């Protein structure tokens, strides 16, 4: 072996060299044909990798052998760098292509999966895992093209998966796949067993990802709309009607309350569908949504018409169920019987079906046509009842003041208040409710009456043939009484249908007695005797009116007796209603003045002593007002009690000023004119007046006036002034001389309130009617007939608007009635020989605006009307009375300050703005100040003691609350300077300044507001600026602001502080005013302000009541454009060709709002969005007044419910009448309240890119302000 070693070494060297050559060749082959060669497909690359890995294994084994042999011969092993490098690369390629092979396996299986079965989440997770492994591969691999290819493949999957997820969402429908095909220019089958993922992966979704995202986004919006529509469809497919038993339970009627709820739901659903139909994504659902919108519209129309027919049918059923009516009107009775049968059959089918959709939609004949036909037939029956209705009006003439349909509704339920209560305001001045107590024998009495009625009908049927009398089967009781049950059924049917179904319990009704009446503010008066609610409504209402007047008269008599023993007026005020307490105060004043005048010859200080004695009578009132409770009762004063005390305090001021004036006129005897010209009450009672009833007697000059005894409830008398007193004197003299009165003056002089105040002072019932250019003369004649028969007063406001036909009718009635009264007749003939009964207390007062160019009093009317011209009222005197009535300190100084502010602002501000500073506006400020003043509980004891000390001073002192400015000397003026005010007075005056800013400030533009604030600082100089808001007020404002900001954020609005202040001002004004003007230029934020307020109040109500279980107070906004129609009759209603009244758009919303207020706790906001001018706004003048009623062309008066607000949204106040401006609150939206910044910010918030928002915001800030300034101010 040793000898041959050399040979072996040579052979080894040859083998090594040969192996080196093979390795180099292997390397060259690897470089040229290996898996890393560019362009090799992944599958080929994997195969080559396996081949080279096998070859490498062989080479590696051979190298190990060679290395071992070399070591055996003591030779250093040869290094093979190409083989090592190839081995390393093969390891790396193994990693790469292992991942590549894993990807290929996933790709092949994923492409073959059905779209319906794919799990995108797990697949996405697997691809993300591959991606992470790919990123973790060595950096050397990442430079290879194969790695880059594999990375691009995996990245493509990562990019396509979000698109696949969107396409896999539930909102994608076949129509959306068709859109995808159209976008990508491809086509594939959509069947679940054929549609595979490879179809999507092969159409290059990434290249069309923007279009596909839009398709998916549209699909999402479409799904939202579809869900809403399916919800609406499901709700109204399953919605059912509810019925209630009528009478004895044999008949059913639609439930009014439930149906009203359905109509509200319908309104919401229709609004939702309308919004859906305006969306650009509604395309695929447009026809279906439109079809449902038509269905819901038809359901709404049917239900509304159904309720109208049902109410009409109930009213007429109450009339025609009376056998006497059947005999008097046989043909109309037969017509009603047919309608009755058809209606009952329709209701029976609906009761069996109940489903709303099936009952209201479809059928051979549309249900709406059937109902309209029934309504027309019922109208024909109704028109035949004029004689029936007029007979009831003769019994109770106040029925002349309501329309025929309202009267029919009132007559329909004689044993309950359900039909009478909504119309008490039209029948009585101060009555809003009646307290009833059940009669213990009520059921028995009712049953006996029904039995007698049935027996009488049976007897008449047996005695009289029915050849000419058509009676339906259920009315012919004598032919169907075959069992005891039939008799009971006949008796129950003859029970008056005026009783609601809830009053029936197995043919039982409950009869009641009226025991007390209640006014609007809660003033209650117990009747001297009970009034039995039996017979017709006209009978017990007439009896109620008579007993109520007797009760008022007895209260006057008792008050006079108490006044003889009581030393303080608060004792009388606590016991009697306001009007009685005022008479008691007048009696005390007359007594003290008569005693003082009688002693004036022997005592120089007789009148001052009389003033002092009278003043002591009033001395307790301010303490009670500040304390907030009666002296002997530990209970807070009610709203009615507050108003009563304020009225007494104001009236007492006026009476005290009269005595002051008498003292300066050197009065010597009670027969002097200066004394007798005043209204006096000696406590005299006339047991039988001109109408045969007892009356208290008032004295004026030589005239003795009978007190009318009408119950005025919580209505307060007018604040008297010397001007008002002279007007009263003239009008009363005209009344005693058989003349009517005409009050003429400029707008804002108090014409209407003067007329109402005179009626209030004399206790007369009055009917106020606002004249319109299109009012119907026939309805005016009907009202005048009622005035004459009732013997009450008629106040025709805005008489200059009355058309010639109406003026002619008024002249005819006034002439006829006045001439008959002059000769002592008790009846007269009007309207072509129609005889009516008249009463001597009949009187007409008309008011007219003197600045109206088209008004001239007809010459013939001048003989029957005494004209009184009103001038501007004494503002300081009236404000002083109101301030004193509210319990404010130093009312004279405060009233002078208010007057000074008004005069300075009227002189310095524009003519339109000057109208804001009217007397009525300042009175509203004083009332708001009084409410805030009463709500403050801090330092009350100090205020009470200070006010008490003021009242204990001499009445002529300026520190007294009741000092007249007319007779104040120079020395007293110095004492009344602001520096001489008490601390309590300074606090009140400081609050007055803030309330002025709160109530008047929102009405002004930014420029005028600066002047106004400057005037306030000058007039209210030297007063502490103290907050008047309580903790509760602050908490309420903060809660409201937080909800407002949340609403603004959710609806894309930017809540600037200036804009939020305006919304908050509007909220505060709406709490105390039912009429509000929101004025400002276009784009100033008026609409968003009103909408945000209503929506925020609705949310606030949910927050406050949602968790308590109480009924949520809803808020609804209705927008109306009065100028959207060419004829205002379409907006405010008109008389039809046959004399029927046709409601307009606004009156329909009005009635609906009043109905919602009665049925639910709902505040309705009627927003009139149009330029404010007299053409249409004057129709609402009486609505904005204290009367709160709208006079229609048919002379019907629509009263406004307490929870209804009227908002005027306008950009022009130039043509607004002073009456509108003075009777409404106002919020003025300046241009800088909104500006461009909120609009730009809201637009920028919709941009998705933060960088884009930042850049655009910077550009806006640098350019828009200079540009807008240049356009608005510098350019011409």
UniProtKB/TrEMBL annotation:
Region of interest (Disordered), residue spans: 954-979
GO cellular component, one term: axoneme
Biased composition (Polar residues): 954-967
Subcellular location: Cytoplasm, Cytoskeleton, Cilium axoneme
UniProt-listed Pfam families: AAA_6, DHC_N2
Biological process according to GO: microtubule-based movement
Top-level division of the source organism's lineage: Eukaryota
Signal peptide extent: none
Keyword Nucleotide-binding: yes
Key words, A-Z: ATP-binding, Cell projection, Cilium, Coiled coil, Cytoplasm, Cytoskeleton, Dynein, Microtubule, Motor protein, Nucleotide-binding
Protein name according to UniProt: Uncharacterized protein
């Amino acid at each position: 072996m040793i000898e041959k070693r050399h040979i072996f070494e040579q052979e080894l060297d040859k083998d090594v060299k040969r192996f080196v050559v093979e390795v180099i060749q292997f390397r060259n082959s690897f470089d040229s044909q290996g898996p890393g060669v560019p362009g090799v497909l992944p599958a080929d690359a994997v195969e080559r990798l396996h081949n080279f890995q096998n070859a490498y294994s062989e080479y590696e084994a051979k190298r190990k052998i060679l290395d071992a042999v070399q070591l055996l011969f003591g030779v250093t092993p040869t290094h093979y760098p190409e083989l090592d490098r190839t081995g390393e690369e093969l390891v790396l390629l193994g990693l790469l292509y292992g991942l590549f092979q894993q990807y290929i396996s996933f790709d092949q299986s994923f492409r073959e999966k059905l779209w319906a079965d794919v799990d995108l989440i797990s697949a996405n997770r697997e691809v993300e895992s591959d991606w992470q492994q790919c990123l973790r591969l060595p950096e050397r691999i990442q430079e290879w093209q194969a790695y880059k290819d594999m990375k691009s493949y995996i990245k493509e999957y990562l990019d396509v998966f979000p698109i696949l997820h969107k396409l896999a969402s539930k909102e994608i429908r076949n129509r959306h796949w068709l859109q995808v095909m159209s976008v990508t220019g491809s086509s594939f089958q959509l069947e679940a067993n054929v549609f595979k993922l490879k179809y999507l992966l092969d159409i290059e979704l990434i290249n069309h990802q923007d279009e596909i995202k839009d398709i998916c986004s549209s699909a999402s919006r479409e799904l939202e709309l579809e869900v809403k529509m399916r919800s609406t469809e499901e709700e109204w497919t399953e919605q059912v009607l509810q019925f209630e038993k009528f009478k004895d339970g044999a008949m059913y009627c639609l439930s009014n309350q439930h149906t009203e709820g359905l109509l509200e739901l319908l309104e919401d659903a229709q609004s939702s569908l309308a919004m859906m139909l305006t969306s650009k994504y509604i395309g695929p659902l447009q026809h279906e949504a439109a079809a449902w919108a038509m269905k819901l519209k038809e359901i709404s129309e049917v239900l509304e018409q159904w309720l109208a027919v049902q109410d009409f049918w109930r009213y007429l059923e109450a009339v025609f169920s009376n056998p006497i009516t059947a005999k008097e009107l046989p043909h109309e009775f037969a017509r009603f019987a047919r309608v009755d049968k058809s209606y009952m059959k329709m209701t029976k089918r609906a009761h069996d079906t109940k489903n709303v959709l099936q009952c209201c939609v479809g059928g051979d004949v549309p249900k709406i046509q059937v109902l309209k036909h029934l309504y027309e037939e019922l109208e024909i029956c109704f028109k035949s009842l004029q004689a029936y209705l007029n007979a009831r009006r003769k019994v109770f003439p106040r029925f002349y003041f309501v329309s025929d349909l309202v009267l029919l509704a009132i007559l329909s339920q004689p044993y309950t208040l359900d039909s009478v209560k909504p119309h008490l305001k039209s029948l009585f001045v101060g009555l809003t409710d009646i307290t009833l107590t059940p009669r213990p024998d009520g059921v028995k009495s009712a049953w006996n009456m029904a039995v007698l009625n049935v027996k009488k009908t049976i007897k008449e049927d047996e005695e009289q043939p029915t050849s000419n009398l058509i009676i339906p089967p259920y009315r012919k009781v004598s032919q169907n009484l075959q069992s005891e049950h039939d008799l009971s059924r006949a008796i129950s049917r003859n029970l008056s249908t005026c009783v609601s179904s809830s009053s029936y319990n197995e043919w039982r009704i409950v009869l009641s007695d009226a025991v007390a009446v209640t006014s609007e503010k809660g003033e209650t008066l117990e009747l001297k005797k009970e009034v039995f609610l039996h017979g017709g409504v006209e009978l017990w209402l007439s009896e109620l009116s008579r007993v109520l007047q007797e009760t008022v008269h007895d209260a006057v008599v008792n008050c006079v007796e108490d006044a003889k023993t009581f030393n303080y007026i608060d004792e009388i005020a606590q016991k009697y209603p306001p009007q009685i307490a005022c008479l008691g105060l007048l009696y005390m004043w007359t007594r003290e003045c008569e005693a003082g005048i009688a002693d004036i010859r022997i005592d120089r200080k007789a009148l001052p002593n009389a003033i002092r004695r009278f003043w002591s009578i009033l001395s307790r009132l301010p303490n009670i007002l500040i304390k907030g409770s009666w002296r002997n009762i530990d209970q807070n004063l009610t709203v009615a009690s507050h108003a009563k005390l304020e009225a007494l305090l104001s009236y007492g001021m006026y009476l005290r000023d009269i005595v002051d004036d008498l003292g300066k006129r050197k009065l010597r005897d009670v027969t002097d004119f200066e004394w007798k010209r005043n209204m006096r009450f000696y406590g005299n009672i006339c047991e039988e007046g001109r109408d045969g009833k007892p009356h208290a007697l008032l004295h004026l000059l030589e005239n003795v006036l009978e007190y009318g005894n009408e119950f005025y409830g919580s209505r307060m008398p007018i604040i008297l002034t010397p001007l008002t007193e002279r007007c009263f004197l003239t009008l009363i003299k005209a009344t005693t001389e058989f003349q009517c009165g005409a009050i003429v003056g400029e707008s804002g002089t108090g014409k209407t309130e003067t007329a109402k105040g005179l009626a209030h002072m004399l206790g007369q019932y009055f009917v106020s009617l606002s004249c319109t250019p299109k009012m119907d003369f026939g309805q005016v004649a009907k009202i005048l007939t009622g005035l004459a028969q009732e013997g009450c007063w008629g106040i025709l406001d805005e008489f200059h608007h009355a058309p010639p036909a109406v003026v002619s009718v008024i002249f005819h009635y006034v002439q006829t009635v006045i001439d008959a009264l002059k000769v002592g007749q008790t009846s007269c003939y009007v309207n072509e020989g129609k005889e009516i009964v008249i009463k001597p207390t009949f009187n007409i007062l008309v008011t007219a605006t003197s600045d109206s160019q088209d008004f001239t009093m007809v010459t013939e009317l001048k003989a029957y009307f005494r004209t009184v011209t009103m001038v501007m009222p004494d503002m300081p005197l009236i404000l002083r009375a109101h301030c004193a009535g509210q319990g404010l300190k130093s009312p004279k100084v405060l009233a002078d300050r208010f007057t000074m502010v008004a005069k300075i602002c009227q002189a310095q501000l524009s003519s339109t703005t000057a109208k804001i500073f009217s007397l009525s506006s300042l009175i509203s400020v004083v009332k708001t100040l009084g409410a805030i003043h009463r709500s403050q509980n801090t330092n009350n004891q100090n205020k009470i003691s200070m006010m008490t000390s003021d009242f204990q001073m001499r009445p002529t002192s300026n520190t007294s609350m009741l000092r007249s400015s007319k007779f104040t000397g120079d020395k007293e003026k110095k004492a009344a300077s602001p520096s001489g005010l008490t601390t309590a007075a300074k606090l009140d005056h400081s609050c007055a300044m803030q309330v002025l800013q709160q109530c008047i400030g929102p009405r002004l533009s930014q420029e005028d507001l600066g002047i106004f604030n400057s005037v306030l600082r000058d007039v209210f100089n030297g007063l502490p600026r103290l907050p008047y808001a309580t903790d509760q007020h602050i908490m309420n404002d903060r809660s409201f602001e937080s909800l407002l900001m949340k609403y603004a954020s959710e609806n894309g609005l930017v809540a600037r502080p200036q804009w939020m202040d305006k919304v908050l001002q509007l909220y505060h004004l709406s709490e105390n005013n039912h009429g509000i003007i929101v004025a400002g230029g276009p784009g100033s934020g008026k609409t968003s302000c009103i909408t945000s307020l209503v929506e925020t109040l609705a949310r606030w109500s949910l927050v406050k009541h949602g968790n308590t279980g109480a009924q949520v107070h809803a808020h609804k906004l209705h927008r109306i454009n009065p100028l959207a129609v060419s004829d205002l009759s379409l907006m405010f209603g008109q008389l039809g060709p046959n004399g029927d009244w046709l409601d307009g758009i606004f009156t329909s919303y009005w009635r609906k709002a009043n109905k919602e207020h009665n049925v639910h706790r709902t505040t309705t906001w009627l927003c009139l969005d149009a330029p404010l001018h007299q053409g249409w706004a004057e129709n609402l003048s009486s609505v904005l007044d204290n009367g709160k009623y709208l006079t229609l062309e048919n002379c019907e008066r629509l009263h406004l419910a307490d929870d209804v607000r009227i908002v005027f949204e306008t950009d022009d106040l130039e043509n607004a009448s002073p009456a509108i401006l003075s009777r409404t609150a106002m919020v003025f939206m300046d241009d800088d309240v909104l500006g461009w910044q909120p609009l730009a910010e809201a637009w920028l918030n919709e941009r998705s890119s933060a960088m884009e928002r930042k850049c655009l915001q910077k550009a806006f800030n640098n350019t828009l302000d200079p540009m807008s300034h240049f356009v608005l101010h510098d350019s011409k």
